[in-house]
Each structure stands twice: as structure tokens, then as C-alpha cells.
Fold:
Amino acid sequence: MKRFLSLLAGLVICASAFSQVPAPVQITPAEGTPNLTKELSRKIGGKAFAKKTAALPAYAWEEAYELTVTPKGYKVLANTEEGYFYALQTLKQMQTCGTVYDYPRFQYRGFMMDVSRHFRDKDFIIKQLEALASVKINQFHMHLTDDAGWRIQIDKYPRLTTHGAWRVGDTWQEWQDGGNKYSYEGAPDASGGYLTKADIREILAAAERLHITVIPEIEMPGHSRETIYAYPEVGCMEGARELCPGKEATFELLEGILEEVIELFPSPYIHVGGDEADKRNWKECPDCQARMKAEGLANVEELQSYLIKRMERFINDHGRQLLGWDEILEGGLSPNATVMSWRGTQGGVEAVSQGHDAVMTPGRYCYLDKVQDAPIYEPEGFGGFLSVDVAHSYDPMEGMPEGAEMHLLGVQGNLWAEKIPTDEHYEYMMYPRIAAIAEVGWSQPDRKDGFRERVTRWNDNLIAAGYHAFDLHKEYGERPAYKNGVKHLALGKPVKYNQLWNRGYPAAREATLTDGICGGWSYGDGRWQGFLTDIDVVIDLESVQPIHYVGGTFLCEPGPGIFLPKSVEVWLSADGENFEQVATIPNEIQEPCQSYVLFGTPVTAEARYVRFVAHPTRGFHFLDEVVVN
Ligand code: ACM
Ligand code: ZN
Structure:
């Protein structure tokens, strides 16, 4: 009996020893009460460990460590200070004695903070760096500039902060609803702020101590309305949002800014944005047109590419590398650029196929501005649903061509802040999901088991330390119908579309509406079929049958422009030729609504064909199944 008990205790130790986030390569548990405070030895750069790790890629070799914890204290082997630092992060999560041998899967494990849409100060930022380092995130990408506010002191161009950093509207939404008005520092209606160079130096010092590289992003040529407000001469015309690549003044300003940014930040990468530029003004602007003619540029995509290439030369001449969102692929990629793939994974695939480096940050898995739980219980997100488990399920190598590991640097979570006015809310959106991304970046795919239990413990500790993380104990979870599906009379029956779905949202095409598979909390999971037009489908039950009910569930998500239909009609027929309308279901839901609404109706009839029609209100409407009983 005694033996049996101690065997059981051993098993418990095994299970709970494996409680690290991110999961290490190897854990060998041992008996005893761990002493986590006494360092018995520290060997950095020793021959034996160098030999043990010799076959690893250079970055993994540098970050590798071995940590042994005994009742007397702990010992660390590492090749570099970085490896030693990661051993200490693991130590903080140790609950038992044992030996951990570890190194990262990817060299780039990032988080992007948006400080433009709502300003965050240096104390908040440094607090987050501490938590990020604890899960071995090593890249902190700062989205420092955008329409909603310029957030970094630039001495040569003071109006960027005396004017570009101040707007009318405390929240991004208020600013948006008020017509995007700007103000100036000290004005009674001014809302905003910026980081001084002294603030940045404090952030950089903290980051260095935590072995985190801070990557500054200076957005160009889109998302630049605040820049043009401060210096109107760099826009094509007044009120423009895109910088004018036709004017030399634009390059003078950008180079002046980047010179100071490069002087301040030691990061090998300088991020230049490059995303979502609306290039229409460039077609009308005489300076842009003259530039295109002089440079032999065929279209406005090539004009954006001209700007990015010129900035890349400048950045390279200053000994740094250019990083940009995947739009920088359009119109021809600059020679040495690294691509951050956000519009799905295609940009990353393309970049590595062309021999460029890429960082993966596809919206579906890495955009932390989506709600993380049932939308009815959550503060409004920016559109979409991303649970901690879905974020954790991502594999950056999926869909990559052979040899991609040469160029696939890693993964990053992005947290855009349009809908996040407060610091508390920002932390709530960061944690625990960034820990899932950290594990995607650090851990070997076969070591990711038991994440739920491990991350819950890590997250509970974070909450105890004063972070406003989302509480995993209160998670509602996926939409029940998503998990369970639905059974009904029309299951597997053929559907004829009088109007096809929108090309961007086909779901399972003709099978979607009768496959018994239901969508989740948002439109992006490949189970919701999207329409900009009427939905008009006919289901063939393949024999005349008594019918009691017809209904369909629609998504409502105003953020990304998804609305309920104005009304739904149900028509029935025995022969497929002559249809009789048996119900009209009006939309009785007040906007704004989040989540989904069932449009269903009882019917009493015999029929073989069910025609289901939905008229859109505006924007998209999304349907996952037509249930017939
Ligand atoms: C982005 O989300 N516009 C990069
Ligand atoms: Zn122009």
C-alpha cells in the first residue's frame, strides 16, 4: 500500500512538473522540495554545454539553457546571457525538482502594441515587457504612429507631437464619430500624449534587461493623417491620409524622422508599416503623376513600391533592415525587406518563396483585438473571435514551402487598440492569449500538450501580480452549436443557389447550409457563408414530407460590417416549380447587437422543396445552416 502511494505521488509530480509556458523541449522531474532561491552554480559559455547544443541553429544555440533544480538550490548551463535569462524565467514557474533542457523553435517571438489609437505611457509599457519576458517573448513591436495620434518625440519636426499627438475625443470612437478632428498640446479640448526620448530610453533600458528587442514602427505612406495635419506639405492635398510619394518634402521629412528613430532604437529592424494605403489621391495628384512618369512607374502600386524601396535604401545605408506589412510585396518587394504577413499567411508564403525573411502574424490566429470569449459577455472587439485555444493551435510552418524554415523568422501577436480605451482593458485583451502565441513561437509542436492547465496557472499568477488578465476560470467557451453541430431533416440534402455567396466567404460552398456544421462566435472560421446580396437558396428534401419548422441563424457583428437581414422569407413547393410563401420573418432586433440571431418559423405543410430567402439591411449578412424539421 505504501509503495502504491509513493508511486501515485511520483505520477502527480510528473504531471505538475510539466507546468511551464512556453513548454520546454525536455523536463526530467526529480523527487524533493525545490529550492528556487539559492543559485548553486551558473556556467555561461562552458565547453560541455556548447558541445551538447552544437547541432542547433545559431539562434537556438544562443537561447538554449539547462536548468537543474534540487532541494539545495538550482544550477544553470547556457551559452549566452540570453540563455541564462530564459533559465531564470523557467525557474520562476518551477514547482518541483528536476532538470529542464530547452531552446526555442523560432528566433522571432513578438508582440505588437498599438499606442496610437489610445496612448499608453512608459510605466504601462514597461509593466507589459515584464510579463512578455516571462513567456520568452523577445520582440516588442511598437506601433508608434497612426491617424489617431503621433506618439514619439522627434526634435527636428516638433509639430508631430505638439499637434499630431493631440486630437478631439478621448476615445478613438469619439474621435471617429466627431469627424477625426485634431487639436494641439495644451488646448482645452486636446486628448492624447506621446513618449519623450527620455521615456523611450527608459523603455529600451527595461527591454534590454529583459532581453527584448524593441522594434519601432513609423507608418508610411498610409495611416498618416496625423503627419499631414502636422506638416501639410507632405500630403497630396489637404486632409489626405496618405503621404505624397511625388513630393521631395515627403522624403525629407521621413528621412529626418528615421534618422532620429535609428539613433534612438538599437533594433536591427525598422518597421515602415506600408499597409492599407488608399492610393486613389495619387492618381489625381500632379506631383505623384510627375513622379510616375519620371521613374517609369506603371501604376500606383509601383509608386508605393518606389517609396518603400527608397526608404529601404536609406535604412540599409544606416545599417538597419526594413520590415513592413505584407502590402510591401505589391508593386515589387524591396531587395532586402522582411515581410510581416497579416492578411492571412499568403504574404509570408510569397516572401519566403522569393527568398525573403517573414514574420507570421495572420489575423485569424494572431489578432488579439478580436473578442476571446462569447461576444455577448465580452466588451466589444474590433471584429472576429479568437480564443486562447485557437491562438495556441496555430502552426507557422503550415502551408509553407519546403525549406521555409530558413526564412520564417517566427510569429507575433498584434493588439490594435481602436476599441480599447483603458489600460485595464488592454491587459485583458493581451493575457492570456499572448502566452499562447509565445508558446507557438518557442515550443516544439509535439510539446504543446496540456496547455490549458499550464496557461491557467501562469495566468492566475499574473492576475495575482496585479495584471487585469481575462480570467480563464470564467471562460464560457465556443458557441455550443459550433461544438455540437445540428441534426435536422435537410441534413446532407442538395441546395441550389439562385444567388451565389460572396467569393471571400464560401465556407463549404454548396454543402454549407445543410451539412449540420454550425459557425462559431464570428465570421472568420470558415463555417459562416457570407453574402452582400439577397440570400436565395432552394433545398431539395428529395421527397415530399411533412414540415413543421424552417429557420436559419444569422451573425451580427457591426464592427466589421456584418448585419442581420431586414427580413427572411420561407417558400415551399412540392414540384420545384410552383412555390408558395408560407412565412415572412421580420428583423425585430435593435442594433447594435453582437453575436447571432435565429430567424425561424413554425410551418404546417407537406413539401419537397424549401426556398429560403433573406434580404440584407446593409453590408454583409452571414448564415451557417438552414434547419428544416
Ligand atoms: C494591419 O492590421 N493593418 C497591419
Ligand atoms: Zn501626391
User: Anything to note?
Assistant: The first strand starts at residue 26 and ends at 30.
